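hey so i finally got around to running the thing on that chain from the lab meeting. sorry it took forever, my laptop kept dying and i had to restart like 3 times. anyway pasting the input first so we r on the same page abt which one it is
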Amino acid sequence: MPPLKYTAEQFAKRVDEYFESISKMQLKEEKEPDPNKKENWYKEWLKPPLITGICVYLEIDRDTFANYGKRDTHFGTYKKAKQICEQYAEEYLFTGKNTAGAIFNLCNNYSKSWKQTNHIDHTSKDKELSVLTSILQDIDGDTSSIGMIEEQEPLPIECDSLE
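ok and heres what got predicted. didnt touch it at all, straight out
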């Protein structure tokens, strides 16, 4: 693997700086919350946390960021950063107005559990396939050949027309 721009400690510090640069801590709106208690504070995002945002902040590309995740020394920070970005996108599914972007992001940038799948039943389940039936009726008016494969004689070619 190519050498990395940041040591594990530098990488962790810079990633934390990125998240701090796009967020601020807010005191919960309660009757006289105690500002000295950590649980009375929450993080408000000023901008969405993004993997691309981390890369721009660190002046690296996405492939380089992924390479950090392949190193045991950097993996913890890499995984935590991805989880923070994924959590933001997942929460947006429940709070956002247009969730298509969040769905796209989750399906393309995170674990396989976010993949969208379509299950199509290609069987007839013992029922007549109406589209196939109508095509066959249009061809020869006969639906008896549905589900059967028959060998047919090749059509004769008139050699006179080729000359």
